[in-house]
Design brief:
7 helices; Thrombin, subunit H; 8-stranded mixed β-sheet; globular; 16% helix; Pdz3 Domain; alpha+beta
């Protein structure tokens, strides 16, 4: 009975990604044909020498005006140059919300930086450093994360605990990792690796043996060993134009999320339900809240999975049945700010039709790391950048 529940949960997580992104990126199964760029014979020392000049150390600080003690927060992280004009790709949690940013280059020089765009949901950000006169900034090539295979060898370059230009090696442990029991903002397809990643590595590149960036190191499981996660570079490439143009990723605000219900779960619960998306949470002030959609009120745990029962069940979305998430991809791609969303709900044994316009999704409290998720390790420069502690 456990397998159907977990498969439904995975499908719901995939749908949650679509709800957040309007399917800017689709979750793909990696091809087993070849690695991102075939077989590269370059040794790790040579690869490090070639790529490391494009990897930088990022430091910054923010001041909380509402606190008398501990009001200054210092951040340490990594990033890498993707453009010869000084664009640096990193994690949002390294640079977002800071009053000052500085970048230390490979040669030890320190320059001021400014935030160009950030997306806390996917934990991606772009900062800008000045282009040096009479010199060319080194850059790193972006690879293809969709073609990764578990077992491929990878390396990470970064600044763990302020130890600049540190290189570690490992393998791809898994792909398309959608972690259970994490906030909705973290339901993104991540790369799992056993490459040593520590506080200070966040925002640094995960590279294949060809020296191409295939991921941005973003988080670790604090209670585990050799379990780290990286944001796939293809996801970063898909939102990079929005970060550069608008300074953020513009998403339609649907305003609710939940889990899919299918025949297996209905049989297990033995309650009068229909196939569809069980609405568990309605975001306060959202268009779904204003339209009167109801969320769950009673928690039920089955085989380690939690469900909030008592809410509406979305049967169709713009005419598409919700029990076939793979067919919803095209519809979700079409949802834009200002689009009209038409829903058929099942509530208390009756069907109900609702529709509303989709405004732009604002930054919500759950999109940012909570205070309780900060890792306790504090390097000499201040707070660790690895500000998200993932729980399974």
């Amino acid at each position: 009975m456990m397998v159907p529940v977990m498969s439904l949960r995975s499908a719901a997580a995939c749908l949650a990604i679509c709800l957040l992104t309007a399917c800017h990126v689709s979750v793909r199964t990696a091809s087993a044909a070849e690695s991102s760029s075939g077989i590269c014979a370059e040794g790790i020392p040579e690869l490090f020498k070639r790529v490391s000049p494009a990897v930088v150390m990022i430091t910054g600080q923010s001041i909380n005006p509402y606190r008398l003690q501990g009001r200054v927060t210092r951040v340490l992280g990594s990033g890498f140059l993707i453009d010869a004009n000084g664009l640096v790709l990193t994690n949002s949690h390294v640079v977002y919300g800071l009053q000052s940013l500085t970048v230390t280059m490979d040669d030890g020089s320190i320059v001021a930086a400014k935030l160009v765009g950030a997306d806390p949901i996917f934990d991606l950000a772009v900062i800008q450093i000045p282009k040096p006169r009479g010199a060319t900034l080194p850059t790193v090539k972006l690879g293809d994360s969709d073609r990764l295979r578990p077992g491929e060898e990878v390396i990470a370059i970064g600044n763990p605990l302020g130890l600049d230009q540190t290189v570690t090696r490992g393998i791809i442990s898994g792909i398309n990792r959608i972690l259970p029991e994490t906030p909705l903002s973290l339901t993104e397809p991540l790369i799992q690796t056993d490459t040593a990643i520590n506080p200070g590595n966040s925002g640094g590149p995960l590279l294949n043996r060809c020296g191409e960036v295939i991921g941005i190191n973003t988080a670790i499981v604090a209670e585990a060993q050799s379990i780290g996660f990286s944001v796939p570079i293809n996801l970063a490439k898909s939102v990079l134009p929005s970060l550069l143009k608008d300074g953020r990723v513009i998403r339609p605000w649907i305003g609710f999320h939940g889990q899919l219900i299918g025949p297996e779960l209905r049989k297990l619960l033995q309650v009068p339900l229909v196939d569809g998306l069980l609405v568990e949470v309605v975001e306060p002030g959202s268009p779904a809240d204003k339209a009167g959609i109801r969320g769950g009120v009673m928690e039920l745990s089955i085989g380690g999975s939690s469900f909030l029962l008592g809410g509406d069940i979305v049967v169709t979305l713009n005419g598409a049945p919700m029990n076939e998430p793979e067919k919803l991809t095209g519809i979700m791609r079409g949802l834009k700010v200002g689009s009209r969303l038409k829903l058929r709900l099942f509530r208390e044994g009756k069907y109900l039709d609702l529709e509303y316009n989709l405004p732009e999704r604002p930054l919500l409290p759950g999109d940012l790391p909570e205070v309780g998720t900060l890792l306790p390790a504090v390097p000499p420069q201040g707070r660790s950048d690895m500000s998200r502690r993932l729980h399974r």
